[in-house]
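Build the 3D complex.
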Amino acid sequence: MEHIRTPKVENVRLLDRSSGQRKASIGTLYLSATHTIFVENNPETRKESWVLHSMVSSVERTPTIPAGSQVILRCKDFRVFQILVPQERDCLDVHTSLVRLSRPEKYSELYCLSFNPNVNKEERQESWSFMDLTADYKRMGLPNNLWVSTAANSEYRVCETYPSELFVPKSATPPIIVGSARFRSRGRFPALSYFHQDTLAAVCRCSQPLSGFSGRCQEDEAMLQALMKANPGSDYIYVVDTRPKLNAMANRAAGKGYENEDHYTNIKLHFIGIENIHVMRSSQQKIIDVGEMRFPSMTDFLYGLENSGWLKHIKAILDAGLFIARAVADEGISVLVHCSDGWDRTAQACSVASILLDPYYRTIRGLMVLIERDWVSFGHKFSHRYGHLDGDPKEVSPVIDQFVECVWQLSEQFPCAFEFNERFLVAIHTHIYSCQYGTFLGNCQKERRDMRLGERTHSVWPELWKERAQYTNPLYRAEQSQSQGVLRPNTTPYCFKMWKGLYNHAEKSTPPRQSPADFLSTVREESQQLEEELANQQEVPPGGTPPPSPGLQTRG
Amino acid sequence: MEFSEHIKTANVEDVVLRQPLHPPGRGTLCITGHHLLFSDREEGSCRQVLLLLRNIDAIEKSVENLLTCSGLFSNAGLSQRLSGSSGTITIKCKDLRVLQLDIPGMEECLNIARSIETLSCLDSMSELYPFFYRPSSASLRDQWGLSSLERHYSQMKELHDRWRLSTVNRDFSVCPSYPQAVIVPKSTDDDMLEKVAKFRQGGRFPVLCYYHKKNGMVIMRSSQPLTGANRKHCREDEQLLQAVIDGSDKGYIIDTRSSQQALQARMTGGGLESKSCYSSWKRLQRQMERGKALQESLIKLVEACGEESNNMDRWLSKLENSKWLSHVQTALSTAGLLAECVERDGHSVLVHGSEGTDSTLLISTLAQLIMDPSCRTLEGFLTLLEREWVQAGHPFQQRCAHSAHSHARLQQESPVFLLLLDCVWQLWRQFPLALGFSEALLLRLATEAYASDYGTFLGNNQQERCALGVKENTHCLFQALLRPRERDCYSNPLYEHTELAIWPSVYPQSLQLWRGFFLRWTPQTHHLEEAQEEIRNMVIEWGKLALSSCPASTRRSEDVQNM
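Done.
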């Protein structure tokens, strides 16, 4: 509370340009410890706008004009609010307060640690057990005679950023694991991400080897050999380095790099060329700018889109996932994926591959499980990447944004293949940034355990699950051909488009567009209702009156 | 039949056909006066592909082994030598499909290619297939067309006070490209119209094209006035327009050319309405691309779509460079402006460019779709197209002679009608519940405009159609599209009538490449079609359930919000 210089300013004008508002509304601005709240003066509506401090990405003050001084709030979900304050002094106070409030310095300042929904302790604990990764491994058929759970990383002894429970080939003994971990950046040794039961091929992940120009490590070589042997039908594995080859080579000078094919027998090295987090950060900024253009011509827009490079990067990630999925499903070859540290591009490529390989991850629950496994448990640095605390801006990068967008691009190509809709993806995106739940806090499992987040915060997954009705894609049918088996997307450039729903709120909401999906959802609900009623009717003896159907509407 | 002189080889066995979305097939190829027929002879399947020769935009042929064969078989006879060789014909269709035929025998291949080249662009209209098409399901005595200006006028009772039906053009002598009947202000007599016609290019004097029931405002269309370099004016023309806005303070003229283009037109006898002579009219210049530039834009876009490049930058820059989406944006925003003048500001508008047969029709049609719910149903839309494109004299024969693949020198080709369909598709995508027809209808129309079994799009205007006896000797496409079976697949299962105007967003991100058309022959379009099918099934199933459980039910009210 000490950061709030003024808790309340009256006669403020708010323009929510992102929701297509054209005229500013007048009202009162309140600053709370967690939110900026604007309440309209209009006694009929008294509309309230709440903006979570942790959703604010920048606060800008523009030069004073006769009507007052202006603060522009840009949010991490790409909304933009313009606030006009009559007195310059007030404006200064609002600005200073918001600058500080939007940049928390300690985890304890974050909303999830004060957020207190009306649940008791048991319910909170239960909310955390909603997500059960062991069950997912079990669903894949693990453990089996090829892959086993290893205790090597219990108490995070071998690798701090890995989860404590991991699957490795049966023949990978603890000495091999430990040796391999020593030879890998940050100790992130090869571990299983996804096991494909149909072909017995697996997707594994790790970080880059510390090979430099000539270094080698027997245990690491044995580890890769073990990966290959865990797939009985194959005599080699793919090692996918998701970086551009040039970057990988440059890393050798720093004692890192990539696998030397002379040292490892039976590997095929494949470079993908996904750019690093810094390139992605500036690319996203450019596409945000494109979304914010006021009256662009088609040429401006397409030029901006091309110039941002964003779709090119999305395509590279999808191509990486597709390469892995094809290797596993079509060739039956296991794949080991890494980048530098194995927590950004590797997470992207592995999770896209899983989505393509396994229809389960295209369901609402499945996508949650996938994000929990490949991102949360495997130590994707959420707090650094999404700027949860004031810190190094160079650590911030839209890595998971890109994964979520890949899923969206796929859902545009296969409208019947996903159980969830765009709203679900946007909701996940928001919560990754919002810090309202503890799920995405911190940078790895160990950090979350040390902070006792399970006792002090709530999990986002059961909340999203409760709301699943509004996140359901009415066109999804599990038994339909499009929903089954391996997805084989076309990645020709013309298949990609800008994700308007995420980057361009302004457009999204100018006229609330007619939505066939909403319409169909209602249709589906009503159909179910009708079916039930019909079933009931059949139980009514002949001559009996059918039960009335309240609120029933039909098309003429 | 005289076609036979163009057919040296009518049948070839053992031909391999490669076409998008299907595995290659081996079978027999036949060529007739109007069709290519391929029959798969593989066991268990009896696939036939029937292609209208008119649908072929361009072919490329290559014959192989000619030299090697003549070297190898130097002792053998000529025919043997040729039979050892083979050829390939690549067929590029106006519906953007690309087929490939591998034909054994070079001579056969060259004969077939020559026949295709000749028969696919016959000059004589009366030799075209619509005059030979005789389906068993329809009779030539069936009703031709959906409506006529006469019927339109008699149905619009609210017009009768101030507007009349004129048959000054009954023998097409006043304006060759107008229909026989037109609607004009009551106070202008036929003598005046004849004078006005002389003052407008091609005789296209201002006529009523749309009456907005809500406020009585109208859209008129015409061609440019022939003011010329010495700024002639025509009192009757001024009077006619004055009669249009009788009672209200002013009207708008939307000129689909830039000011500079309009001024330059004076040098060639054309021009624009001057402020001094038309004091109650406010002119708005909105430049729209036309003619050759539009055709080139289409060619570039189709080329970009056909390229199998993996490079995102290259695709985006080619898409931008084609300018097609810019044309879509301009057309929709100009139509939006027109609708705004009429619906929001309550003014009557005259629309013209130069000839008044292309961009004029484009924006007046779109504006009607935006404002008028009655043209958003399947019948309503087809009637609108019949009135505003076929009867109003869009020169289909010239504009759709070739599509994007042709290497022929461009003459009058221009994909204005295709641009209209694209814009309608954008509307359909932005308001999925407001239009009563499906994307399949738009795709069908895009195909039929270029090559058709039906007579609807034959010729350039009603006069030509009358001379050819189109009505008596061909079948009508619009009637065919409304038959019960067709109606099912061409109507939109989600359609909900709304009285409100549907204002399209013309923001670049709201406009998309029309994949259904431009990428029609790629596999992923198939997934989107599946989704449409799923929607149709869901709604049908739901309808059945609703019917069986609750016969007396109320209509769902769905709100379409205004911008």
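Confidence is low (pLDDT under 50) at residues 68-74, 76-82, 551-563 of chain B.
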